[in-house]
Amino acid sequence: MSSPSFVPVHKSSFAFCRYSLAVLSWSALLLQSRLLVVIAAAIMLLSSILTVQRAPLVVLWNLTIEKLHPSRLEFLDIAALRFAHTFGFALFMIDTLLLSFHLTRSAGWALLAIISCAKTIGALGFCAPSKMYSCATNNHGNCCSFWRRNKRAV
Q1: What are the pLDDT digits (tens) for 111-125?
Q2: What is the DSSP letter of 141?
Q3: How much is the pLDDT for 149?
Q4: How far is CA 36 from CA 29, 55, 64, 79, 105, in A?
Q5: From 82's CA, which of 18, 49, 54, 68 has a CA 20 to 30 Å away?
Q6: SS3 at position 8
Q7: In angstroms, what CA-CA distances link 53 with 41, 134, 154?
């Protein structure tokens, strides 16, 4: 298994990306806007394809605010964030499909509420999909205390 590949990203640009997507998903829910859900899906897809250092919101921040107020760099795992962005894209697309049909629209809004909560938790720095990816691929699945506890019991 290959070792993780890390890239430097300005801390404030990555935070802007996380917070913006959380605000976008809550706005979509509060305004009942399918268009905002599609925009969020597009941002997640582009972020997945372009990788975190070239993600649209990261680049937007770097071309504007970062030039005025530089922040320190942090090193992020490309593969883990690509997985997280792809996972987020899939959730937003499932939600878009649910919102497209009259019979499943209420389920779509309920799913968007769950996604919005997850995006808020992610904005605070607790990204479950990237953590799941890291746990599954690094240390042979031994990075989580849950896995270590179960392994000792065997």
Answers
A1: 999 999 999 999 998
A2: G
A3: 53
A4: 9, 18, 23, 26, 15
A5: 68
A6: strand
A7: 18, 18, 41
Model pLDDT, residue 22: 97
User: Do residues 74 and 13 make contact, with C-beta atoms less than 8 angstroms apart?
Assistant: no
Per this entry, what is the length of the chain?
A: 154
Handedness of CA 140, 141, 147, 150 (dihedral sign): negative
Beta bridge partners of residue 103, listed in sequence order: none
User: Across-strand partners of 77?
Assistant: 6
> What SS3 class is residue 147?
helix
DSSP per-residue string spanning 74-102 = EEEEHHHHHHHHHHHHHHHHHHHHHHHSG
Q: Is 44 exposed, middle or buried (0-12, 13-18, 19+ CB in 10 A)?
A: buried
Q: Where are the domains of the chain?
A: 7-153
Please name which of 91, 81, 153, 86 lies closest in space to residue 116, comparing C-alpha atoms: 91
